[in-house]
Amino acid sequence: MKKTKEEQMSLAGTEEGEILTRLNERVERAIAAIQELRRERDALQKRLDDAEAKLRDHTAAGERQTSLEEEHERFKQERSEIRNRIETILSNLETLDE
């Protein structure tokens, strides 16, 4: 039995409605996924910014430590030089006393 034109149109309308409903659901899921990905991106960007700030702080602290170590070594050398000069002067003074 052949379907009438009205029956075919209502069937087509139902199929189109289902297609549009499925399409709408997929679009809604895609929008939700995009929003979630954006939230994740923003959270990861904040973590990256925090990590880079910590790295800069550690780098600066490392540079300060290196500078202090170099200064400490220089002071040790100067102290050794001063000690040697004092010993030389004391030796010379002892020679004068004899």
Can you describe this structure?
- The protein has 1 helix and no strands.
- The chain has 98 residues and is mainly α.
- It is 95% helix and 0% strand.
- The model has no long low-confidence stretch (mean pLDDT 89).
In short:
This protein has one helix at 5-97.
Q: How many angstroms separate the termini?
A: 142 Å
Find the count of extended strands (DSSP E, 2+ residues). Answer: 0
| Helical content band | over 70%
Mean pLDDT: 89
- Order of H and E elements: H
Which terms would index this structure?
single chain, 98 residues, mainly alpha, 1 helix, rod-shaped
Write the layout of secondary structure elements.
Elements: H1 5-97
